[in-house]
Amino acid sequence: MAYSEEKTVSAYIESLPEERRNVIKIVRKLILENLPEGIVEAMNWGMICYEVPLETYPNTYNKKPLMYAALAAQKNHYAIYLTGAYMDEEKMKAVIAGFNEMRIKPNMGKSCIRFTKLEKIPLDAILKVVKETSLSEFIKGYEKSRG
Predict the structure, then answer these.
(1) pLDDT tens digits, residue range 11-29?
(2) Which residue in 51, 107, 110, 138 has the fewest CB atoms around it within 10 Å?
(3) b (16+ CB within 10 A) / e for 28-63
(4) pLDDT at site 6
(5) pLDDT, tens digit (0-9, with 9 covering 90-100), for 56-113
(6) Domain range spanning residue 23?
(7) Number of domains the chain is built from
(8) What pLDDT score was predicted for residue 132?
């Protein structure tokens, strides 16, 4: 995984080559337009993170903000980390259905959706998960996963 030492989202974006910067800017804008209330954007774990601030939910296992989603330009691909979909089977099915409708095989890891071009991911399905996973629903999912 490519890891950025940049401290701000702007610095991270500016550090990318122009083509990669443009893709990240487009996806970032769409995520921000669909982000539920209470989720904030920050640089964390070397990528752009959308997280639950510790002021809102301090009881995390690692004392860091809960990562709601993230966006990164890796060495050979881009990645969207969509925690809400990985917590909810129906939301994950909706993302996979988006790939199926596009007739594209999903390139997904344990916690991310990888893509090389915007045309190769179902942005509508991904953004729907972002928009429809409320802060309270996300926290409930986190607490359930922690037992």
Answers:
(1) 999 999 998 999 999 999 9
(2) 110
(3) bebbeebbbeebebbbebebbbbbbeeeebeeeeee
(4) 86
(5) 999 999 999 999 999 999 888 999 999 888 888 899 999 999 999 999 999 998 779 9
(6) 9-145
(7) 1
(8) 93
Does residue 1 lie within any of the structural domains?
no
pLDDT of residue 77: 94
- Residue 137's contacts (CB-CB under 8 Å, 6 or more residues apart) are 84
Average pLDDT over residues 27-35: 97
Whether residue 3 lies inside any domain: the answer is: no
CATH number of the CATH domain containing 75: 3.90.1150.200
Per DSSP, the three-state class of 57 is: coil
Burial (CB < 10 A; 0-12, 13-18, 19+), residue 78, is buried
Three-class DSSP labels, the chain: CCCCCCCCHHHHHHHCCHHHHHHHHHHHHHHHHHCCCCCEEEEECCEEEEEECCCCCCCCCCCCCEEEEEEEECCCCEEEEEHHHHHCHHHHHHHHHHHHHHCCCCCECCCCEEECCHHHCCHHHHHHHHHHCCHHHHHHHHHHHCC
User: Which single residue is written with the structure tokens 């500016």?
Assistant: 14
Asked if residue 39 belongs to a domain, the reply is yes
